[in-house]
Amino acid sequence: MNENKKLFLLEEDITYLNHGSFGACPKVIFEDYQNWQIRLEKQPVQFLTEELYSALKKSRESLSLFLGCDQDEVLFFQNPTTAISNIIYNLDLNPGDEVLMTDHEYGALVRAWNEWGKKVKVHIKYANVTLPLKSKDKFFEDISSKISSKTKVLFLSHITSPTGLVFPIKDIIDFAKERKIITIVDGAHVPGHIDLHLHSLDCDFYTGAIHKWMCGPKGVSFLFVKKEHQKWIKPIIYSWGKDGDDPERSEFLQDFQWQGTRDMSAFLTIPEVINFFKINIESFQGHSKKLILNSREQFQRVLGTHPISKGDDFLGQMISFPLPKSIDGNLKDLLWENHNIEIPIFEWNKEKFIRLSIHIYNDQKDIDSLMNALRSII
Ligand SMILES: Cc1ncc(COP(=O)(O)O)c(C=O)c1O
């Protein structure tokens, strides 16, 4: 077995090629998570009214250092959906205003935007990103050409879910900001996957999952809120806030941190998660990307379809490849049941895609097993 796989709780005899969906948690991080839960239960009152807040602060400090922002600009959420929903329900737009996003956004969030849009009569518009993605100028043109005086919000994935593409978002964010358009970035797949410096990116809001590529336990994500917006972004759930036990000076943090009794242990693992990243993941990222770039050629040979990106710039540690139209609808089940391979198949824009993820516990052998299995099925 791959040596790195021994660091994880993953079952030994499966070929796990779907890190992108829910990550996978290493043993040391999971132990740290359970230790926090045990500490809580040993003295619940002391923990939840005192110890918790200094531990949350440590997590915020290490995460903000890692993300290139200030410690009082990050809030913890269980997942990106709750983080983005919290922004959506604070927006004060007028009927007829528009929210612009690409046609590659995560389906659950597209649904969240549309449900809200129907209620407040705000139009949700889509910019088609031309495929294959091969230049950042074309990407910029595809989106900027859809911006009008009605556009009030730009919502963009930094790494897309169904198509596994790294979007070159900096120029379009700057363009939107010059026009006073609120910029919200869905970076669910970004932390631990590609470099991120939030102050340099300079968007208004950014969410990322820590339980995906950073390998945190499930239920730890963040929302970055630029300081100038902290006055009007309020929690969907109000609890004690400044009248509670949280010693923070910022009412913004107090309002968000305590949302009724809950287990925040996953948030408290962040220093351990970052430590694991630095020791075990960071130096491996280039290698994982190389495996992904090589797999693009293998996919093309085995599937006979064409890649949706060109060059090295738009791929990280995931790749989505179009399946031939003739392929069986149950490919995912066949790969799992007959070959012990866990890999997702997505339908996007009426086409089916297979999405490969590579993390430190994967190697070329895993990719070869996938290609051999695909050959035997097609
Ligand atoms: C691009 C993107 N955004 C948002 C999410 C939302 O994640 P969750 O369902 O955990 O909130 C995901 C999940 O995979 C994603 O891939």
Write the layout of secondary structure elements.
Elements: E1 15-16, H1 19-22, H2 27-42, H3 44-67, E2 74-77, H4 80-88, E3 98-102, H5 107-120, E4 123-127, H6 136-144, E5 151-157, H7 170-178, E6 182-186, H8 198-201, E7 205-209, E8 221-225, H9 251-257, H10 265-268, H11 270-281, H12 285-303, E9 318-322, H13 331-339, E10 341-342, E11 345-348, E12 351-357, H14 364-377
Parallel strand pairs: 1-10, 3-4, 3-5, 5-6, 6-7
Antiparallel strand pairs: 2-8, 7-8, 9-12, 11-12
Helix pairs in contact: 2-3, 4-5, 12-14, 13-14
Bound molecules: pyridoxal-5'-phosphate (PLP).
H/E series: EHHHEHEHEHEHEHEEHHHHEHEEEH
> Shape from CA axes?
globular
CATH architecture of the largest domain: 3-Layer(aba) Sandwich
Record the strand order, biggest sheet: 2-8-7-6-5-3-4
Q: Based on helices, strands and strand pairing, what is the structural class? A: alpha/beta
**What's the CATH C level of the largest domain?**
Alpha Beta
Radius of gyration: 21 Å
CATH homologous superfamily designation of the largest domain: Type I PLP-dependent aspartate aminotransferase-like (Major domain)
Q: Span between N and C termini?
A: 28 Å
Q: Main beta sheet: strand number and arrangement? A: 7 strands, mixed
**Count of the domains:** 2
Which regions have little confidence, pLDDT < 50, spanning 5+ residues?
none
Q: Which percent bin holds the helix content?
A: 40-55%
According to CATH, the fold-level topology of the largest domain is Aspartate Aminotransferase, domain 2
